[in-house]
Amino acid sequence: MPTTSKSQTITKGTERGLVQRRLPTHRPPTHPGEMLLEVINGKRSVTPDTALRLARVTGRSADFWLGLQQDRDLWHALRSDDAAKIARLKPLAIVG
Q1: pLDDT at residue number 10
Q2: For the whole model, what pTM was predicted?
Q3: How far is CA 53 from CA 30, 68, 82, in A?
Q4: 64, pLDDT greater than 60
Q5: pLDDT (tens digit per residue) in 9-63
Q6: Do residues 79 and 86 touch, judged by C-beta distance below 8 A?
Q7: I want to staple 64 with a disulfide (CB 3.0 to 4.6 A). Which of 35, 41, 60, 75 is the partner?
Q8: Rounded to whole angstroms, how far apart are CA atoms 37 and 43?
Q9: How far apart are CA 62 and CA 42, in angstroms?
Q10: What is the mean pLDDT of residues 81-93?
């Protein structure tokens, strides 16, 4: 049976002895808990796929998770370098 160690190697028994190989250090998260940690740490955005996964394991709706992402995006946009340029835009004239 393969065993893992803290050095990110896997040791597997064979007929000739032990074989070691390096485990990948940069693998995509596969569990919603891992995804949530990346969202919290600012390494991942909440996509519709992620929102569905988080909804399934937390009991909160996918709309809740997407809404949080949208709120965060808007907060950052309001504080971005482009916010002053956006504020100078002229409203469209309504013809009617």
Answers
A1: 52
A2: 0.60
A3: 10, 15, 33
A4: yes
A5: 555 555 656 666 665 566 666 677 788 888 888 888 999 998 998 899 889 999 9
A6: no
A7: 60
A8: 9
A9: 19
A10: 92
Written in H, E and C, the secondary structure of the chain is: CCEECCCCEEEEEECCEEEEEECCCCCCCCCHHHHHHHHHCCCCCCCHHHHHHHHHHHCCCHHHHHHHHHHHHHHHHHCCCCHHHHHCCCCCCCCC
Residue for token pair 């891992």: 34
With beta carbons less than 8 A apart as the criterion, state whether 11 and 3 touch: yes
Could you identify the residue written with the tokens 């007929």?
15
Q: Which residue has the tokens 């740490």?
A: 41
Q: Which amino acid is at 39?
A: V
Residue whose pair of structure tokens reads 């940069």 in the numeric block: 26
Structure tokens at 44: 């991942």
Model confidence at 1: pLDDT above 60: no
